[in-house]
Amino acid sequence: GENVEQHPSTLSVQEGDSAVIKCTYSDSASNYFPWYKQELGKGPQLIIDIRSNVGEKKDQRIAVTLNKTAKHFSLHITETQPEDSAVYFCAAKPSYQLTFGKGTKLSVIP
Amino acid sequence: DAMVIQNPRYQVTQFGKPVTLSCSQTLNHNVMYWYQQKSSQAPKLLFHYYDKDFNNEADTPDNFQSRRPNTSFCFLDIRSPGLGDAAMYLCATALGTFSGYTFGSGTRLTVV
User: Fold this and answer.
1) Average pLDDT over all residues of chain B
2) Residue A59: count of CB within 10 angstroms of its CB
3) Does B100 contact A44 at a Cβ distance shorter than 8 Å?
4) For each of chain A's 110 residues, which pLDDT tens digit applies?
5) Distances from the Cα of B38 to the Cαs of B32, B35, B86, in angstroms?
6) A44 CB near a chain B CB, below 8 Å?
7) CB atoms closer than 10 angstroms to residue A1
8) Which DSSP category does A94 fall into?
9) How far is B50 from chain A (nearest CA, A)?
10) Inter-chain residue contact A43 with B31, CB threshold 8 Å
11) Of A74, B40, B58, B73, which residue is least crowded by CB atoms under 10 Å?
């Protein structure tokens, strides 16, 4: 089955700096890669996703890059704000289910 | 707004007392999933429905059951909750097996 590794597990950045979270996956059949933001006590919210026929996607301060050959994808958040503080999960989907990474706790220090 | 709604948000149950969590959706998605998420961990898939077809994960305990009476509703039944079943339970929906998920807000289950 699919295996998703996510790094780092915790990340602290100063407000205004950039944050980068990296994930690798194992199943070359995976063709859909979403990123979720989960705030304390809430369900995960989709913030951006990318499909395997695209190398990069951007939405305002958030961007995702995908390298299919190397089987890794990354989340980039620019100009971080305190409200970006949350746990971020990457995921990969080769078939019917998403396989999640273990999450990154991002803390943005004002 | 179309969405996935989970009730209740917080549920306290006694050790061994059956409990049911509910999920409803207005998205008309044909796939519904139940995930268990323990503190500081990634969500773990328990089972999913593709329309009426039920699919159980191999390592989902028999203590967990599910029902999907129609497209809009899905229930998670825990027959005899143990202390180790305390977790956040997340419902998600998808339009087809190759689409992204929409999650509900989750139900936080406490077992006393």
Assistant:
1) 93
2) 10
3) no
4) 889 999 999 999 999 999 999 999 999 989 899 999 999 888 899 999 998 888 999 999 999 999 999 999 999 999 999 999 999 999 998 877 889 999 999 999 99
5) 20, 10, 8
6) yes
7) 8
8) S
9) 9
10) no
11) B58
